[in-house]
From TrEMBL:
GO CC, any one term: endoplasmic reticulum
Record-annotated membrane-spanning stretches: 251-271
Location in the cell: Endoplasmic reticulum
Catalysed reaction, written as an equation: heme b + 3 reduced [NADPH--hemoprotein reductase] + 3 O2 = biliverdin IXalpha + CO + Fe(2+) + 3 oxidized [NADPH--hemoprotein reductase] + 3 H2O + H(+)
Official protein name in the record: Heme oxygenase
Single GO MF annotation: heme binding
Organism, as annotated: Oryzias latipes
Pfam families membership: Heme_oxygenase (PF01126)
Annotated positions binding heme b: K24, H31, Y140, R188
Length: 272
């Protein structure tokens, strides 16, 4: 019994030092907050709208472009090389395919990017140059999160938006990963093998919390942008019949997709 207790204690102590477990612990509260943003609740309720999803894709494109370019540029760095899986995880090409499906071949001229997304991308570029080992926090947060819920969220999005096929949903597909569970185990093992000083480890943990905060801000900004656009549409579509009346929100949501496709939004750039 004593030997078993010592073995269990040693196992728990090792787990406590695993970077993946430490990130999971320090981001627990932020994870819950992210799941309770309006955008994520829409997914959970099976009520995500086409305007919501299109704006999300726009932000994901910018985020993954920054993340994957920095990972590629630092692929030989000791803190990045163990978790660099471009063939299995790269999302940029898939997102581009989805954007072309929804916006057309000139989608680059039509995408709308909130300020929070630009701040997120600025941070990714910054750490890619100054603290490459911190990229592991963002890669883990994004890739494993997408891989974990990808298939489920893809089905929810397809049903709630009334899509007849999987076109427009390439982001959720990981053809290079045959077994998500086994791959996640491999990824965590590779993460835990990264050699970090205590200062670097603390920095990675802080960056993981920051990654969740950035995602929460992006989700919130998307909803704010939708609200602002809906208010503009309400004014445009207001008509008089005795007294002023406005079209109901469901109809506005239907028209919103076209409006966003034609709109070009200029947002400020804010450095951290």
């Amino acid at each position: 019994m004593e030997t078993e207790r010592k073995t269990q204690a040693a196992t728990e102590q090792t787990a406590d030092r695993d970077l993946s477990e430490q990130i999971k612990k320090v981001t627990k509260e932020s994870h819950v907050r992210a799941e309770n943003t309006e955008l994520m609740l829409s997914f959970q309720r099976g009520q995500v709208t086409l305007p919501q999803y299109k704006l999300l894709l726009c932000s994901l494109y910018e985020i993954y472009k920054a993340l994957e370019e920095e990972l590629s540029r630092n692929s030989n760095h000791a803190g990045v090389a163990p978790i660099y899986f471009p063939s299995e995880l790269a999302r940029l090409e898939s997102i581009e395919k989805d954007l072309e499906y929804f916006y057309g071949t000139n989608w680059r001229e039509k995408i709308v990017v909130p300020a929070a997304t630009k701040r997120y991308c600025h941070r990714l570029r910054q750490i890619g140059k100054e603290y490459p080992e911190f990229l592991v926090a963002h890669a883990y947060t994004r890739y494993l999160g997408d891989l974990s819920g990808g298939q489920v969220l893809g089905r929810i999005a397809q049903k709630s938006m009334g899509l007849k096929s999987s076109e427009g949903l390439s982001f959720f597909a990981f053809p290079g990963v045959s077994s998500p569970n086994l791959f996640k185990q491999l990824y965590r093992s590779r993460m835990n093998s990264v050699e970090l000083t205590e200062e670097q480890r603390n920095g990675v943990l802080e960056e993981a919390v920051r990654a969740f905060e950035f995602n929460i801000q992006v989700f919130d900004d998307i909803e704010k942008l939708l609200d602002v656009t809906e208010n503009k549409l309400q004014k445009i579509l207001t008509f008089k019949s005795g007294e002023a009346k406005t079209l109901h929100v469901p109809l506005i949501r239907m028209v919103l997709g076209l409006f966003l496709a034609l709109a070009t939004v200029s947002v400020g750039f804010y450095a951290l």
